[in-house]
Amino acid sequence: NAGVTQTPKFQVLKTGQSMTLQCAQDMNHNSMYWYRQDPGMGLRLIYYSASEGTTDKGEVPNGYNVSRLNKREFSLRLESAAPSQTSVYFCASRPGQGSRQPQHFGDGTRLSIL
Amino acid sequence: AQTVTQSQPEMSVQEAETVTLSCTYDTSESDYYLFWYKQPPSRQMILVIRQEAYKQQNATENRFSVNFQKAAKSFSLKISDSQLGDAAMYFCAYRSAILYYNNDMRFGAGTRLTVKP
Fold first, then answer.
1. A90 at interface of B, judged by CB pairs closer than 8 A
2. B40-94 confidence digits (pLDDT tens)
3. What pLDDT score does B98 carry?
4. Residue A90: its chain B contacts at CB < 8 A?
5. Residue B31, min C-alpha distance to chain A (Å)
6. B112 close contact with A: CB closer than 8 A
7. Tens of pLDDT along B84-102?
8. pLDDT of A1 higher than 70
9. Do residues A90 and B45 touch, judged by C-beta distance below 8 A?
10. Nearest residue, CB atoms, B91 vs list A33, A42, A98
11. Alpha-carbon distance A24 to nearest alpha carbon in chain B (angstroms)
12. A-chain residues within 8 Å CB-CB of B91?
């Protein structure tokens, strides 16, 4: 009954360091998403993967890369972390782009960049 | 692009009373979904209720109900018999039902609900 699992839950980085946030879902969903949540703002889409083998930019993609490793896993990479990327990151999934089902969210990763 | 506006950054309610959280959205589409998510201090995003735009009947889930006014582009959440566990940040969200290649969700900025004992 895991749903969407994100690792790690917390991370502190120094400016310029690189980091990969991991996300895995066990619901056989086709579509996966990465969001960031900043104070006073709702979640904003960074990247998404409509299906295995495809990825596309969302609203705020600069400074990030993603990999859809297989149907279960969708990772988010910060190549050179910047303080502006301090945020809470959420991974989500749902059956597919045409599905009427809502997204299922992971528990989030709190990332601080000093 | 669609936008979602929650005009109440903070709300408070007395335990056992009723509170209504406001949400408006902007879209030119006719078929879409609307959601309310609850985010407690644990950070989880918990789906509270959803509404499909083609359905005229307002959705209800136990103590939670919505007032969906399609023409006014309004989607408010009513919490009846408020409980201490309802204290959280509440996000309103919109998603197109049209099969775009990018029909992601658009979120409002959130309303922080405090429940007073």
1. yes
2. 998 899 999 999 999 889 999 999 999 999 999 999 999 999 999 999 999 999 9
3. 74
4. 45
5. 11
6. no
7. 999 999 999 999 887 664 5
8. no
9. yes
10. A42
11. 16
12. 42-43
Q: For residues B106 and B5, is the Cβ–Cβ distance under 8 A?
A: no
Are A56 and B101 contacting, i.e. CB atoms less than 8 angstroms apart? yes
Distance CA A35, CA A91 (A): 6
Q: How far is CA B115 from CA A23, B11, B39, B82, in A?
A: 33, 9, 14, 7
Q: Which residue of B has its CA nearest to A106?
A: B44
Residue B99 has what pLDDT? 64
Half-sphere exposure of A42 (CA within 13 A, CB side): 24
Residue indicated by tokens 């998603």: B95
Longest dimension (CA), chain A: 41
Q: Is B53 on the interface with A (CB under 8 A)?
A: no
Question: Which pLDDT band, with edges at 50, 70 and 90, does B7 fall under?
Answer: very high
Closest residue, chain B, to A34 (C-alpha):
B104
For every residue of B43-87, DSSP letters joined together read ---EEEEEEETT--SPPEETTEEEEEETTTTEEEEEE-S--GGG-
Q: How far is B101 from chain A (nearest CA, A)?
A: 7
Q: How far is B17 from chain A (nearest CA, A)?
A: 26
Q: What is the pLDDT of residues A4-28, one digit of tens each?
A: 999 999 999 999 999 999 999 999 9
